[in-house]
Design goal:
single chain, 146 residues, mainly beta, 10 strands, 11% helix
Length: 146
């Protein structure tokens, strides 16, 4: 798998978690999907690939280099992103930046974040790309807001 696809996957974010006395939202509670709610830093926690609907799911995260597994991407409210090759740095490093946008549930960017959002609970972002390598396949990214 090309490095850019791996970076796309590792992509997403770190933000500060806040605790309060208010009742916590359920992990399955849906959040409004907009650029403001999606803004933040994310880390890739799962990357699954299916060649077709009948094929078994393959764990691509397990096959990634260690230097790609600890990276994060920060989506900014202004439509820009910063990809940080954090922790164990790859050679050459994968630091990058660019622009992103949201149209309904479709994430697009100039290379790092692309796909259709299947769920978002203000903490876990799951999106997928159909036909990523061949007709009928599906690549699913799970990102955890930091």
């Amino acid at each position: 798998m090309k490095r850019i696809t791996i970076q796309l996957a590792t992509a997403l974010f770190i933000s500060t978690s806040f605790f309060s006395c208010k009742k916590e939202k359920s992990a399955t509670t849906a959040c409004t999907i907009n650029m403001t709610s999606l803004s933040g830093a994310y880390k890739l926690t799962a990357l699954k690939y299916k060649r077709n609907a009948a094929a078994p799911e393959v764990d691509y995260l397990a096959t990634m280099d260690a230097c790609d597994k600890d990276d994060f991407i920060t989506l900014k409210n202004d439509g820009t992103y910063i990809y940080n090759d954090a922790g164990t740095v790859c050679t050459p490093n994968g630091n990058d930046n660019g622009t992103w946008q949201l149209n309904g549930k479709i994430l697009t960017s100039d290379g790092m974040v692309n796909g259709t959002i299947s769920s978002y609970d203000c903490k876990t972002l799951i999106f997928y790309i159909d036909n990523s390598s061949m007709a009928g396949d599906k690549l699913t990214f799970t990102m955890l807001k930091q």
